[in-house]
Amino acid sequence: MANHTVAETLPVPFLEKTGILSWILSTDHKRIGIMYLVSISTFFLIAGAFALTFRFELLTPEKNIMDPHTYNVLFTLHGAIMVFLFIVPGLAASFGNFLIPLMIGARDVAFPRLNLGSYWIYLLGAIIILIALLKPADTGWTFYTPYSIQTETDVIMITLGIFVLGFSSILTGLNFIVTIHKLRAPGMTWHRLPLFIWASYATAILQVLATPVVAITLLLLIAERTLGIGFFDPAKGGDPILFQGFFWFYSHPAVYIMIIPAMGVISEIIPVFARKPIFGYKAIAYSSLAIALISFFVWAHHMFTSGISEVAATIFSFLTFLVAIPTAIKVFNWTATLYKGSIWLHSAMLYALSFIWLFTIGGLTGVFLGALAADVHLHDTYFIVAHMHYVMVGGTVMGFFGALHFWYPKWFGKMFNENIAKIAWFLVFVGFNLTFLPQFILGTQGMPRRYATYPPEFQTLNELSTIGSWILGIGIFIVVVNLIKGLFNGEKAPQNPYNSLSLEWSVPSPPPHENFEEIPHVTDWTYGYGKKQNTEK
Amino acid sequence: MSWLPEVASNLASKVDGVLWFITIISLIFFIIISTFLIYFAIKYRRRGDDEETPYITGNLTLELIWTVIPSILLMVIFVYGFVVFKDMRTPPKEATEINVVAKQWLWQFEYYNGKKTLNELYVQQNRPVKMVMRSDDVLHSFFVPAFRVKQDLMGGRYTQLWFTPTKVGTFQLFCAEYCGTGHSKMLGKVIVLSPEAYDRWEKGEEEEEGVASLSPAERGEQIYANSGCNACHSLDGSKLVGPTFKGLIGGESELEDGEIITADENYVRESILEPQGKTVKGYPPVMPSFKGILSDNDISALIAYMKTLN
Ligand SMILES: [Cu+2]
Ligand SMILES: [Cu+2]
User: Would you tell me which CATH number, out of the four given (1.20.210.10, 1.10.3720.10, 3.30.70.20, 3.40.50.300), belongs to the domain A20-506?
Assistant: First the structure.
């Protein structure tokens, strides 16, 4: 009898239902998160495979396996798919969906059906981009005019796909903003929020404000290609730099759409594995907002050599240095959190520490590019390629892998093999550095980016980089296999394997359908690790 | 192997000053952060499950220090970068002007005396030059690493760049802004001559001298590589933007209108001077005309070279 009642009130894990319809019609934020996770990971692997292929081409100065056009197509697809299908939706859509309601003590996001709609729009955009692969564009992911107007490849289809993806991004952003404002559990004040929530909030604002600009820009581009209206092509009386201005007005904030959620992840992982409160909570929280805000006013630092005026270049250089400050503060805060901690080097923590280290390199090399005279020499060389990968892979992808390993037990209710995860981390870390460190030197030596062939003096460093890409590829392959294997024969995960204080760990693994049986009452912030001294209040 | 290219212009050493300055500051920060990361990760490694940790949530002094010091350093870097940039953007009045036209995928230079060169820019040591540049089609970017200069070119607007070459020698010119299939072959050379040699070059003596010792086919090979044919035409039978040169002469070409012709010397000559006249089927009509750029001698040399490829 007693048993019976328990069984009835026992919450149903959200993964229990099976069948395709239970997924594609589900409004459960955790399921939608998984659909995003699977989709973005697939595109990450596809775009990564493209990169491995054209990196192989670069093993030799002259033609190795493909002609220049194929090379150009591959780096275009690599960039476009990585940016628009993986990294922009990325952590925000997958882990954002999964974690935001759980972390703030809500049963779901504010508009669950809209949330599902966003996913469908994402999928539609993805399908359009896949169709665009039939006659793939060769413009680079930046679609600079007038080349994107003149090339005979299919630019319209892929930009249309990105246009559609934009709506998904905007709607997700709106949904998260409202969720964070309205659905926080009683007692979950702004200053008790986990930093991942602050990061998601800043990201959502960027998504809502910046995305419409790229949407309009791409529409203008499509109009110019189909109707011949001269917005950007000087041959038709347009202004070629205008496109760059528009494009970066979105794409620079987008860089922060890509990185801020990863910063949020790091702020969650480090305190748990160091068993220390996060150092400088408010500084980290508000620096996310500061970065989001300033990032709207630095776009022209991608254009110092494009022909913009000196005054403009100077102002944008100055503002760029401003955005470096809140970023630096975060790095110091994370490092300081480790002080006197009890550090468990779990694979998730290894990714988090790698993030700090690699992101520091990415950030410091960004200082070179913000300084006008230095940028003139480095712009459009491999230095840019290296810098941007240190931020996007060393930063965001490390954050993504960290998040995967950290919340995996919660999300799927299973454990993965931790030893294999550590080996994979090591390969990823070494492979990544071997791939991209040489590229800094290639850049300072003057090798331009987007070169299918190159002068022979650059060969040694290119070889190193290509070999690095193989190690990185193997590492990522092991990560994927290890995590997928865990789903099938991993041990059952306990509710709270790392003794975290955050709300998502107070529910079973995997969480039940509506997360909380009873909405929790929050009385303290998430980071109350360590022993309070008497002196501290 | 050095991390920077050689220093061959007045601007290069100034830019290097900025690069070194930032490198040193960055390295200091990098070393500080790496040291703390690694030291903490080792020193505070978890040894038992119930280790006690202190409850530290912040430290105002520390946070102020690490906000203010980087801010000051960043401002110094900003000003330094700006000051040198200002120099790079302010050509001296006495600078000689050279017109630059970029098109897919070659560079054309026109000098004050009407002389024109292709993919080879001749300048005189220690004499400042100012490039007045435009593009005939898409964006390109004029980049000479040894001079540390770079500037995009576009249609419908002139852009400028200046430098004073300080070393005699030959330096690589790259197109740094992606411009399509031939982007990585849009290469050129900057040839810096001593004042005497430059005088001779202006009078047209230099050319004959170096060339006399080469056979026509050898000269043709040079022209192939230096005049940008290699961006669009391969030698090994593979298809680039245009058809390969391998087996071209004496072989058959199908024209846009379906006519099949046997390529002879005259056809090749016509293709080079008036490429839009008879275009080959299956290729875009993008080949630029070399009229006024390649002389009759040059074309004969090219033909001699093509014959060796059969
Ligand atoms: Cu070019
Ligand atoms: Cu180019």
Answer: 1.20.210.10
R_g of chain B computed on alpha carbons? 27
218-277 in chain B: CB under 8 A from chain A: 238-240
- Mean of pLDDT values over A517-521: 91
| Cα A388 to averaged position of ligand 1 atoms, centre (Å) | 22
Asked whether the beta carbons of A70 and A61 are under 8 A apart, the reply is: no
Predicted pLDDT at A6: 43
Query: CA–CA separation, A441 vs A472, rounded Å?
Result: 19
Nearest C-alpha of chain A: how many angstroms from B30? 7
ipTM of predicted assembly, 2 dp: 0.91
pLDDT band (50, 70, 90) for residue B24: very high
Amino acid residing at A489: N
Tell me the chain A residues in contact with residue B85 when contact means C-beta distances shorter than 8 Å: 310, 313-314, 372-373, 376
The verdict on domain B214-307 having CATH code 2.40.50.100 is no
CA distances from A200 to A33, A90, A108 (A): 14, 12, 15
Instruction: Please say whether the beta carbons of B255 and B279 come within 8 A.
Output: yes
Cα–ligand 1 centroid distance for B196 (angstroms): 32
Q: How many angstroms is it from B153 CA to the middle of ligand 1?
A: 9
Q: Which of residues 112-151 of B touch A (CB under 8 A)?
A: 137-139, 141, 143, 145-146, 148-151
Residues B65-88 pLDDT 10s: 999 999 999 999 999 999 999 999
Question: Average pLDDT of chain B?
Answer: 90
Domain boundaries, chain B: 12-88, 96-209, 214-307
Q: Which residues pair with B171 in a beta bridge?
A: B190
Q: How far apart are CA B238 and CA B228, in angstroms?
A: 17
Q: Which residues of A touch B41 (CB under 8 A)?
A: 338, 343, 345, 353
Chain A contact present for B186, CB below 8 A: no
Is A341 within 8 Å of chain B by CB?
yes
Prediction pTM value: 0.91
First CA to last CA distance, chain A: 50
Does residue B280 carry a pLDDT above 90? no
- Between helix A112-132 and helix A155-182 the angle, nearest 10°, is 160
List the single residue in B with minimal CA-CA distance to A353: B37
Confidence (pLDDT) at A4: 45
pLDDT value of position A9 = 55
Task: Detail the DSSP E strand segments found in chain B.
Answer: 96-103, 106-110, 116-118, 120-124, 129-135, 140-144, 149-153, 159-163, 169-175, 188-193, 252-254, 260-262
Show residues of chain A in contact with B143, CB under 8 Å.
380-381, 446, 448
